[in-house]
Amino acid sequence: MTAIPEIFSYAAYLECARCKTTYPVTDINTYAACCNQPLVVKYDYPSGFYKEDLIFREKSMWRYFEVLPVLERKNIVTLGEGMTPLLPLEKSAAHHGFADVLMKDESFNPTGSFKARGLSAAISKAKELGVQRCIVPTAGNAGGALAAYCAKAGIACTVVMPRHTPNVFKQECELYGAELLLVDGLISDCAKKVAELKQRGDYYDVSTLKEPYRLEGKKTMGYEIAEQLNWQLPDVIIYPAGGGTGLIGIWKAFKEMIEMGWIEDGHLPKMIAVQSLQCAPVVRAFYNPGGWKEGFTPQPSLANGLAVPYPFGMDMMQDVLHQSNGMAYAVSEEEIIAGVKEFAKTEGMILAPEGAAVWKALLHLRRMKVIDSADKIVLMNTGSGYKYLENII
Ligand SMILES: *Cc1c(COP(=O)(O)O)cnc(C)c1O
Ligand SMILES: [Zn+2]
To answer: Is the pTM of this model over 0.85?
Structure first.
């Protein structure tokens, strides 16, 4: 094994998601003011990065360090995130007549959700940039993950969360030593509170897609899916979308792998976003891009990660759905609860409600002929159901 160099990322610059104006990757960055859109990290691959390089690497998302934004290895803040299993669902697939269904099970991550990936990347970068204090509006899981990585990094942390969030999400923030503020309303109301606090204090705002690096952590799911399937991508990926970083990130990973020659262009998966009928802006905008906000009355969902009424990355999400020939679909709260219960009994896994939404959407999508029984299908279970149980049993 060759030693890993001290400076080892191919991160080159940041780019506005819409107009492609570039920004330096060495500054503290938020979002692209030119177009009020997210900033995305662009890489150049000077001496190359080969998939064969991965064979002896550590079993965490940092195995892909060349295409992650942290410039110096010593700044990585890790709790072992990533390289989660891709489990075949033989029983459920056979029962419902599907040929090949796999579950990327993100409940294995630190703090019990895939938010760990994004926040490991963001807090590592924040440490590298000398940040002292972070703040985030959250529907639940991002707050706990931010609090944990800030604790490890020695960075102060403030989490702003809806009051109706289950207790475990609040308790973990307090245990990790974060300041916790509760707000009546949804994550969009928490975001208003964060904006207010930022007027008075010097906080690094880690809101979804308002800093560029959580996306980089989440994209590692795309790299892992490809690696675990021996570089043959599935036909369909079904993803529970809230702010959209996972959806956008997985697609970004596929594009980067094409650029590096790791996978072939031409047969990328259909990307499908699933939401709750309680709050389905991505579905509304998919069918009515110009008028989706009219008569929109967002409500809380048991799948709290999906209750993001006005996602900042909306345009990027819609681009992924259209470019991939995918779509967006919403399921009811009753279906979500039923999904958690039936999945636990048949597969021995307690899905997050967000994962259960994906599971229930699968059957609808076949009925609508968006997917076929013969397709190779990857479902995303984005978190652990254990954190939500007080509202499910
Ligand atoms: C945050 C979250 C989501 C939505 O993720 P985005 O990247 O914001 O789309 C889905 N599931 C769970 C469990 C979450 O915590
Ligand atoms: Zn721009």
So the answer is: yes
